[in-house]
Structures are given as structure tokens and as C-alpha cells.
Amino acid sequence: MADDLELRFERTVQAESRIEPRDWMPDGYRKTLIRQIAQHAHSEIIGMQPEGNWISRAPSLRRKAILLAKVQDEAGHGLYLYSATETLGADREDLTTKLIEGRQKYSSIFNYPTLTFADVGVIGWLVDGAAICNQVPLCRTSYGPYARAMIRICKEESFHQRQGYELLMTMMRGTQQQRDMVQDSVNRWWWPALMMFGPPDSESTNTEQSMAWRIKRDTNDELRQKFVNMSMPQAEALGVTFPDPELKWNEERGQYDFGSPDWDEFWQVVKGGGVCNEQRIAHRRKAHEDGSWVREAAVAHAQKHAQKEGAA
Amino acid sequence: MSFDNAYESLLGHEDAHWAFGTGFSEALSGVNREFPPGVDREALAAYCLMLGDDALIFSQRLSEWCSRAPELEEDIALANIALDLLGQARMLLTRAGEVLDRDEDQLAYLRDEREFRNVHLAEIDCGPGPGGDFGTTIARLLVFSSWRLALFSRLRGSADPVLAAIAEKGLKELAYHRDHAAQWTVRLGDGTDESHRRMQAGLARVWPFVDELFATHPVETRLAGVAVDPASLRSEVDGVLEAVLNAAGLTRPADTRAARVAGMAGRDGVHTEAMGYLLAEMQHLHRSLPGAVW
Predict the structure, then answer these.
(1) Where are the alpha helices (DSSP H) in B156-233?
(2) Is B57 in the A-facing interface, judged by CB distances under 8 Å?
(3) Superfamily of chain region B38-288
(4) What is the ipTM of this complex?
(5) What does UniProt give as GO cellular component (chain B) (predicted)?
(6) CATH code (residue A46)
(7) Which of A129, A158, A305, B135 is the most exposed place for a label (fewest CB within 10 A)?
């Protein structure tokens, strides 16, 4: 019996069909998905902070509206993704607790500080750009609710990327001080953006099983290469350079060669040593704890209301 | 290579499905922007600044909740309300700027505190932070949106076609803001002992700033037929607030009134101490890079 179920699951995945919430699935598949989707949801929620940092100071009302709407979209992405984990039997409150207790991770990129308004543009261009490269393949991932959430998220991320790039284009047409601000920001974010694809394939532990289950579709290194190839012409059009002396077109490979990120820094930030790790979690914890009386009141009110209706 | 390359096919070229536009000219397209004959333009500009600054400064306060709300759904809702108000502010500042020959950003970022004409209710700190909490924020939102909704529903009849169009567009937004605030007021008033206490305290915090909302300013008197006399809104707004507070089991605070300063308040450009810090934060980057384009 179990073998039949497992066989059917394997066939569904191999046929590129979707696994849906009520279908049988191996425990490992379910756990891997909950971990991956929760981590993605946490990243959206923590990711509200670095950009939210500039809402109050946005230098024009149009940019303020764009930024506020973008950060709001991220909250929306977090919501869809937590909902997707709930189809697998997870619980949002429980996942939030795991996040603020440091038992589940989020994308390490958000542990870097946003120091100037150019960072808002560069995050849109490079960080959202890298996220899109990671996420577009997930629109075809084997778990249906995740794949469908990703289609919507990728559309919105793509819009954010365009807005980020458009901000940088505008700044590059402005004063020398603005151009310097953009280049400085690119210098700070380029390597962290490349790290978003995860460690090199030779050191990545989760890749193989996830590829077999069609949860993951491309290796870290393949996606990183794709991102570099995509970003170079954009940098040229913008008039900025990337801080990598090894970065150059390789005629033979038909791709760009590029240097290796500082993986020691990567692991240091992943393990909690980034400039903002503690701050990001403390901020999320405070919001959650400060809001507990509000959530309790909403539940209490709903219960009283239900009782009244029941009595009537 | 097109820069959207890999995901262009996903996005397509229609932007209609994006929840929030970032332009605003479309919203008022087709509206006659000529000034009505005989209108006191200086007063019209001042009036647009009053209503625009109310929205801009309150939006700035509400957006402080971004990533700090009690629940994700609420984070989205408060950002939504802040965005609506920011949109109203931009249309109103743009209208003022048509008289003053300045654009929305010059008006938002390059005026000094004494030139801002918003009511104090918009600027005070109601949390998150030392000035309040979610209950205080909801109390302010309830009062502000009930008042502004009543104001905009009359402003639809303004002799200025632009103000009338802004009011028409804003009305649906404000009805949602008021509804959202009223629902939370009831939930918090009825929910737990703690939420009841906090909601009542929130009302006490904002109540001294209610009276200013209904004080007629000389600018409004000069604009008969164009502006709404806020004194005429009092009984309607009081009725709405009373109904919500009753449903929530909350008590209307005693009618305390924040004193004016030498007879002046927000509409005269005389603000609370909180305003200087708010503007310092909001304006600093714009002012730090003169000549920059954003």
C-alpha cells in the first residue's frame, strides 16, 4: 500500500505534474517544503525592515509611495507563503516563534544594512533580481500551492526590480554625488547578492534530494552564472561597475567569468555575525510581542460574538 | 538584451494588476484645472495645503507602523491607508502648487515647520513608540477618518473642480479607513480587559486634539462655496463617534481641549514639539542633496 502511494508520488513528480495538499507525500518531502517555504516567508517579512528603513526619509513623495507599496507587497508575499505552509499542516504562529527564537532561518542578505537611498534601488535591481533568478524556476516546482504562490510573487518581484533599476537610472542622470552614491551601493551589495544563490554546488548539502523531488530545479552555481550574465549588460547600461577584477566575458564559454564571493563572510553572516542579525530579529520579536494583546483581543471578541450568535 | 529578459514573459506589459499605482495624474485626468472665476487663489492654495498637510503628515505617522503591526494583515492594512492618504496629499499639494508655482516635492520637503498647516491630531506620536500603541493609533484613525470623511463628502460640491474631484476619489478610501478603525475600536473595546483599557486610554490621548478639527479658520471663511466650514461637521462626526463607542462599550472622554498658543494652532503653522522631529526625518535627505533628481 505504502509502496503504491510512494510510486504514484514519484510518477507524479517525474511527469512534472503537481502534488496537491491532500495527496500522499513522503515525510521528508513535506518537511523539506515546510522548511523551504517558511524560510522564504520569513525572508519576505524580515526583508521589510532594510527597505522600510527608508520610507520615512524617501526623498520624493513618488518614491515614498513606491517604497511603501513595495514593502507592503513583501508583507503580502509573506502571507501567501505562510498560507502555503499551512496547506502542509504548519501553523503561522509556530513558524513565527521559530523565526524569533532563531530556530528557522531567513535569507542572510537582509542582515546587511541599508545605508543610503541608493540601497533601495540596488536592492530592487540586484537583490530582487537574484531572488527572481532563484524563484522563477520555483513557479514549476512540484508542490502546487507553492508553485502558484511563486507565480504571483515573481510577477510582483519583477515589477520591484524594474522600479529599483528605474530609481538607479534616475539617480545616475542626477548629480555626481548621486552617481557616487549608486556606485558605492553597488560595491556593497554585489557580493552579498551573489551569495544569495547559496554555497557552491560542491558544498551544498540539500541540492541533490531537492532536485530529485523537483522542489529545486537548478543548482546554485547555474543560477549564479545566469544572474551574472543577466546583470552585466544592465550595469553597462546604467554606467556602474561591479567590484570584481576577474569579471570578464569568456568567448569560449559564451558566459562571463567571475570571482568567488568571500564565503567566510557568508558563513559568518549566516551564523549570526552580520551587522544586522540581532537587530532584525529583535525588531520582529518586538512587533510580535507588542501585538500580542491585540491578537488576543481579536480572538476574545470573535469568541464572544460566536457565543452570542450560538445563543440566538 | 532587454533587462527584464527571463521574467518578461511572466510579467507581460500590462500594469493594471499592480495593487497600487505610483502616479496620480491619471486619477484626475479630464478634470478641468482652471481656477473658478473670482476665487481667492491665495486662500485656495492655503486651503489645499491644510488638507494636503493633514494627509501627508498623518500618512508619515501611519507608515511608521510598517513592519511593526500586530499581525501581517494589519501591517498591510495600515500601509494601505498610509498610501491612500499619501495619494490625497500629492493631489492636494499639486493643486496648491499650481497657485504657488511649486511642485509637490518642493512643498513637502522645502517648507519649514511654520509653513505646515496640518492639524495637531495628524502629527502627534500615537505609537508605535513612546507616544502610544495600537489602541492609540486606532483612536486617532477613527477620529481622523470620521472627520475627514464628513469633510470630503461635502467637499464634493466645491466650486473648485479639482477639489471636488479629489474629494470624490478620496471618499471611498476614507469610508474604508473609518470602517477599519471602527471595527478595531469595537474589537478592542469588547475584547479583553487589557484591550478595553488600552483603547480607552488611546481615546483619552487623542481627545484633546478633537476640538481643533472643527475650528473655522479665516481661510475657510474666505473660500465660501469652495471650502467646507468644519464647524458644520461637528454634530455629524459626534454622532458617528458616539455610535462606534457605544458599540464598543467605551466611554466618550471628557471634553478636554488642548489650549492654543497665543490663539494659534496647526492651521496657523503653530505645531507641537513632535512636528520638528517628524519633519527633520522626512525632509533631511531631500534637503541634503540640493539639485538631486529622484
Answers:
(1) 161-190, 193-206, 218-222
(2) no
(3) Ferritin, core subunit, four-helix bundle (1.20.1260.10)
(4) 0.95
(5) cytosol
(6) 1.20.1260.10
(7) A305
| CA nearest to A165 within chain B | B3
Q: Measured between CA atoms, how close is A112 to chain B, in angstroms?
A: 17
Residue A124 to chain B, least CA–CA distance (Å) = 13
Q: What is the mean pLDDT of residues A3-18?
A: 92
Nearest CA in chain A to B61: A56
pLDDT digits (tens, 9 = 90+) for B212-232: 999 999 999 999 999 999 999
CB-based contacts of A111-114 (< 8 A; 24+ apart in sequence): A111/A269, A111/A274, A111/A275, A111/A276, A111/A277, A111/A280, A112/A50, A112/A188, A112/A189, A112/A192, A112/A269, A112/A274, A112/A275, A112/A276, A113/A50, A113/A275, A113/A276, A114/A50, A114/A51, A114/A53, A114/A54
Q: How many independent structural domains does chain A possess?
A: 1
Cα of B97 to nearest chain A Cα, Å: 14
Interface mutation vs chain B, best among A46, A56, A61, A63, most B CBs within 10 Å: A61
The per-residue pLDDT for range A138-165, each reduced to its tens digit, is: 899 999 999 999 999 999 999 999 999 9
Beta-carbon pairs below 8 A across chains A and B: 199
Q: Is B224 helix (H, G, I), strand (E, B) or coil?
A: strand
Chain B residues with CB-CB distance to A237 below 8 A: 3
What residues have CB less than 8 Å from B263, skipping those under 6 apart? Answer: none
B18: β partners: none
The model's pTM is: 0.94
Torsion B71-B77-B81-B86 (CA) sign: positive
Nearest C-alpha in A relative to B87:
A65
Q: Report the pLDDT value the prediction gives residue B13, as an integer from 0 to 100.
A: 47
